[in-house]
Amino acid sequence: MYYKTQNLGDGTFSRIEDQKLLKSRQYVFTTAGSPKITQVLQNTLYPEIMEANERILLAGSQWRFEQVVWGELIFNTFDITRCGLSGSSYIPLPEKLKNCKGIININNEDNKCFVYSILSYFYKEDRHKRHLISTYRDIDAVLAYIDALFGIKLNFSGLQFPVSLHQVHKFEKNNPRVSVNIFGLINTTSCRLYPLKNVDQEKEFHFDLLYLKCCNDTDDGDDDDDDDVDNIYSDECENEEAGESDN
């Protein structure tokens, strides 16, 4: 929990509170050759959190640290016998994610949900068109618009659609000013999130994407979906820990 005081101009002050999410890197543990979890917590993870806290305090925003409200350590089991994760076409959001704003879920019929999720980031000011697939029909025109307005030439070359999780690193390599986090759902009832891919450092253009999979689907990837997550831990969604598609 962070707080700061604001001068109201009449000799009185108001207290402003805010909860900020401090993330660490993602670590891999195997049955052999991995350090103990306690060693990673003490020597690496805790110092990372403290460094993130110091960056907030030194940013000149007048925030002051008060207390830790909650902490969460999530373990995700990876089964190498299953096929790789990949995004594809549209999947409706779970009901619980439709109760607050934060996720753009584009209703596409092809396998390029990753592309649309990235492009939608640049349409934040056009909330009436941002979630519509018609906005992105002419991808070349959209890329030219993004280049002219934001000064970045997005490069999707070399990607195979649907884009699998390991291909996201290729996209980041093709676009040095871009970083991408991928989140999954522990289950569709609680809608609690866990990181599938978590970058060490967020770049100038950073994207938080939510990976969805149809619960009745097989593992062929045909009904997987990537959504652009704007404010996945915003104040308006703090009780849900996620958002919903716009309009």
- Please, how many domains? 2
Which residues sit in consecutive blocks of at least 5 with pLDDT less than 50? 80-87, 215-224, 230-247
Structural class: alpha+beta
- The number of helical segments is 4
> How far is it from the N-terminal to the C-terminal residue, by CA?
31 Å
The residue-averaged pLDDT reads 74
Largest sheet: 5 strands, mixed
Within the largest sheet, what's the order of strands?
Answer: 4-8-7-5-6
Question: How does this model look, in words?
Answer:
The structure is a single chain. With 247 residues, this protein is α+β, with helices and mostly antiparallel strands. It folds into two domains: 2-65, no CATH class; 95-237, no CATH class. It has four helices and eight strands, in the order E-E-H-E-E-H-H-H-E-E-E-E. The chain has helices at 37-57, 113-120, 139-150, 167-174; strands at 2-7, 13-18, 64-65, 103-104, 178-185, 193-197, 205-213, 224-229. It has a five-stranded mixed β-sheet, covered by helices on one side. A hairpin with a 7-residue loop joins strand 5 and strand 6 (193-197). The longest helix has 21 residues, at 37-57. Residues 80-87, 215-224 and 230-247 have low confidence and may be disordered. Residues 221-247 are annotated as: Disordered.
